[in-house]
Amino acid sequence: MADPATSPEGFRRDIGVIGLLYASLGGIIGSGWLLGPRNAAMQAGPLSIFSWIFGGVAILLLALVYAELATMFPRSGAVVHFPRFSHGSFLARIWSWVLFLGYVVIAPVEVVAVMSYANSIPQVHHYLPPLVSAANHQVTAVGLGVCVILLVIFTAINLGGIRWAMRLSNAAGWWKLAIPTLTVILLLMNAHHANNLKIAKADWQHDFRGIFTSLATAGVIFSYLGFRQAVELAGESNNPKRNIPIAVIGSVLIGLVLYVFLQLAFLLAVNPAQLHQYGWAGLTRIADFKTKTGPFAALAEGLGLTWLAWLLYADAIVSPSGTGFIYTTTSARVIGAMGDSRILPPALAKLNRAGVPWMASIVSLLVGICFLLPFPSWHRLVGYISSIMALSYGIGPIVLLALRKSMPEHAHQRSFRLPWAPVLGPICFIISNLVIYWSGLHSNTLFFGIIGGMLAIFLLYRLIFDRPGFYSLPWKNTWWVPPYFGGLWLLDFIGSRGMVGGKGYLSFPWDVGAVAIFSMVVMYVALKAAIPLEEMQAYVETQEV
User: Fold this and answer.
1) Residue 135 CB neighbour total at 10 angstroms
2) Which of 72-81, 104-113, 151-160, 319-328 has the highest mean pLDDT?
3) Cβ-contact 38, 44 below 8 angstroms
């Protein structure tokens, strides 16, 4: 008889609803709140408030999609299996590469943010050389060494088991909620520069465009992406069908409210005289913002709240570290699920005595360290991650609509059901593709280049060493993927020069319409290319068992 305290994969079911909620909140409240509001203000001025509203609503819609999928298949690393349900093993393999590249790089981003903030603390220089270069804002050799040490510590703690990991996550969760909330209250109490919210007529067009570009490049979407932590840990929850919707939806709603008020507090607290001199786009030229990486700490010191500044410096260690820690936990589950699905070597799915995929944890650590090397700055990493994670999320609506046909509700009950799925599903897919588009030509060239290279190596290997396997690949179910990736890159290439770094043949807002139309064509073709219902139902039944 199966042990109810363990999942079918062997994971311990030790996580309750609060644990899942704080896991998702831990992914949402990280370095984004420390750096994102300043970056968004520089791109969109007072309209940056709408960046957080639009971003939160967009991610909430995606969260609703994954809330239904996750309650149907509550397994650890569940997102690895979702593409297999609708389009077979070949698409699952491709999307697993996307997930792999997205998850393993988040923890490095967070430790880079820790270095950026710690570098602003004068006392740090008494003990360590500069952690971040003043010339290019990139992590130095010493900073890189500290980043590696932090990643090793995160991995070592996770190897001790999910129960200890969740205890640490819950403790950090209370802190991570309290400090941003306190910051909002104190800044609003001590700064009332309402005129900062006025927009000059000449700035309207720039700020309006900035609402959308800041979604991808200022860290707005990046900040919300952590909601899926609860989905990845579903197989280790004691009641996943009840806990997952609460954790996923609740974490996004809490994050949305918090980030909107943080942005408002930041806008009102900036010194009007300095703002008049440099403008929102020139915030980093202001002395306090120029010498200090932490914008909220700089504002607190400017208002005489020195003790709050020191509290924010402490939180600059806790918040990003907590997010990096929880992503270390979930990335190991994703890699382990890839091993369980034979996409990667099966040994990666092996668990240690504490019920942790230990080899997957080591692989996550090593790959994460490699990603510190080509992208040693927070801003450059954020654009890349926003693009790759948006693509990984975008498959969700396609899978959901396909499963609505193969798994009608009268035969397969759902504890949570997305309302108006035929309408909201396509909207979610459009949103994901817009975020990819707004990530910019530079980030997407790199990202699609990596995915294209991995696909080419895989196909070449099959052609040379496993020719029957090459010809037996389900091409008819996945032929639409290369045109999809290529089309997204082409839209960036011809897109707005100012918004995405393209050639300028397609300007705003026409580019938005072009992405929306392209998305609808891709979704239609993808649903037509889904595997036969009989095959889909057979695989679904094996997963349910």
Assistant:
1) 6
2) 151-160
3) no
Mean pLDDT on 171-182? 83
| Domain membership flag for residue 12 | no
Task: Give the model confidence (pLDDT) of 424-459 as tens digits.
Answer: 999 999 998 988 888 888 888 888 888 888 889 888
**pLDDT tens, residue by residue, 264-277:** 999 999 988 888 88
Residue 234 and residue 414: Cα distance in Å, rounded?
15
- Look at residue 545 in the predicted model and tell me its pLDDT: 47
Q: Return d(Cα 58, Cα 431) in angstroms, integer.
A: 7
pLDDT at 111: 84
Is residue 8 domain-resident?
no
Instruction: Tell me whether residue 256 is in a domain.
Output: yes
Q: Could you tell me which of 295, 352, 389 has the C-alpha nearest to residue 66? A: 389
Considering only CA atoms, give the Rg of the chain. 23
The number of residues in the chain equals 545
Question: Which phi and psi (to 5°) does residue 237 adopt?
Answer: -95, 145
| Structural domain boundaries enclosing 118 | 17-544
Residue 379 scores a pLDDT above 60 = no
- Which of 2-16, 326-340, 443-457, 496-510 is least confident? 2-16
First-last CA distance in the chain: 14
For residue 6, being part of any structural domain is answered with no
The number of distinct structural domains making up the chain is 1
Q: How far apart are CA 338 and CA 350, in angstroms?
A: 11
Nearest C-alpha neighbor of 149 from the set 118, 103, 176, 179 = 118
Q: What phi and psi, each to the nearest 5 degrees, are found at residue 298?
A: -65, -40
Query: What CATH number is attached to the domain comprising 473?
Result: 1.20.1740.10
Q: How far apart are CA 39 and CA 380, in angstroms?
A: 12
pTM of the model: 0.81
Long-range contacts of 79-82 (CB under 8 A, 24+ apart): 79/228, 79/231, 79/232, 79/334, 79/337, 79/392, 80/334, 80/337, 80/338, 80/340, 80/341, 80/343, 81/337, 81/341, 81/543, 82/395, 82/396, 82/399
CA distance 17 to 54: 27
Residue 41 has pLDDT above 60, yes or no: yes
Rounded Cα–Cα distance for residues 276 and 280 (Å): 9
